[in-house]
């Protein structure tokens, strides 16, 4: 029997970035998944805070060379890779000078969110999908961690819905308590409308007063993980409205907390077999 394939897309991961609980989950979960008999790929942004020499990142020339269009401009996508020897695992990094060279991650030296965070998110989410297409690797599970990945459920279910590689993919969105959507302008829907999507296709990401990334991601995901002990306000109501499978992730101090993720994956994959 073929191994199930799990794509982990994350905005941060220890030891490369360590901003929140996402870093720890994104480091331990793929290794655990791999040790339990599944294939994994991990993709994340190559922020300028990541020391390429220390972590031995190098460019994957066969995957690089694409251009990603964001708001009618072309941005080259560079793919780099590093190995985590203790986990026998590779991590792929999406890089671009305009978006990721700076020496801060999401906020400037004054603590203000970068104005181009929406553009960076669009570039990253579209770049992830195009990179997986270049892999030629059809994931059974696509597990997205954090607000920066929140457009991937939408894109997979709309702009890329006819892409054969993702036809069987179950998309999981993990919600944490560290989003920056309050800094997003009303231009967000225009920027995020890729591949013939319209602003109205982004309607699920609007809440009447501004942008709500979790609302849109939950609508288009097949399942949701509540990854923080203090999730964003209004989440319970949102989940009740959508009626999706939900995993309330156990606290990371619990010895066997990672096994809950595997059980959740298997439940979703069984649904595919027994619709």
From TrEMBL:
**Which InterPro entries does the record cross-reference, listed alphabetically?**
Starch_synth_cat_dom
Annotated SUPFAM superfamilies: UDP-Glycosyltransferase/glycogen phosphorylase
Q: Which reaction does it catalyse?
A: [(1->4)-alpha-D-glucosyl](n) + ADP-alpha-D-glucose = [(1->4)-alpha-D-glucosyl](n+1) + ADP + H(+)
Query: Boundaries of each Starch synthase catalytic domain copy?
Result: 5-229
Q: Which UniProt keywords apply?
A: Glycosyltransferase, Transferase
- Report whether Signal shows up as a keyword of the record: no
Q: What is its EC number?
A: 2.4.1.21
Pfam families reported for this sequence: Glyco_transf_5 (PF08323)
One GO MF term on file is: alpha-1,4-glucan glucosyltransferase (ADP-glucose donor) activity
Q: Which Gene3D superfamilies match?
A: Glycogen Phosphorylase B (3.40.50.2000)
Q: Does the keyword Transmembrane helix apply?
A: no
Q: Say which domain of life the source belongs to.
A: Bacteria
Q: What is this protein called?
A: starch synthase
Native organism is Flavilitoribacter nigricans (strain ATCC 23147 / DSM 23189 / NBRC 102662 / NCIMB 1420 / SS-2) (Lewinella nigricans)
């Amino acid at each position: 029997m073929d191994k199930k394939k799990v794509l982990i897309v994350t905005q941060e991961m220890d030891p490369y970035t360590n901003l929140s609980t996402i870093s720890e989950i994104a480091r331990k979960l793929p290794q655990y998944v791999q040790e339990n008999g599944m294939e994994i790929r991990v993709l994340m942004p190559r922020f300028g805070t990541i020391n390429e020499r220390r972590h031995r990142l190098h460019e994957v020339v066969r995957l690089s060379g694409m251009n990603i269009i964001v708001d009618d401009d072309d941005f080259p996508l560079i793919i780099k890779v590093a190995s985590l020897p203790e986990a026998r695992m590779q991590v792929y990094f999406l890089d671009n000078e305009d978006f990721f060279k700076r020496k801060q991650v999401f906020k400037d030296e004054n603590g203000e969110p970068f104005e181009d965070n929406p553009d960076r998110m669009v570039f990253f989410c579209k770049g992830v999908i195009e990179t997986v297409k270049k892999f030629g690797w059809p994931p059974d599970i696509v597990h997205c961690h954090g607000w920066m990945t929140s457009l991937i459920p939408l894109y997979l279910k709309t702009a890329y819905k006819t892409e054969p590689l993702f036809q069987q993919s179950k998309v999981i969105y993990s919600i944490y308590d560290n989003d920056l959507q309050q800094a997003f302008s009303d231009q967000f829907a225009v920027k995020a409308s890729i591949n013939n999507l319209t602003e109205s296709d982004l309607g699920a990401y609007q809440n009447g007063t501004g942008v709500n990334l979790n609302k849109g991601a939950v609508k288009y995901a097949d399942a949701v993980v509540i990854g923080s002990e203090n999730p964003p306000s209004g989440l319970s109501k949102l989940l009740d409205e959508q009626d999706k499978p939900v995993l309330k992730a156990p606290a990371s101090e619990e010895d066997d907390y990672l096994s809950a993720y595997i059980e959740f994956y298997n439940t979703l994959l069984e649904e595919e077999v027994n619709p």
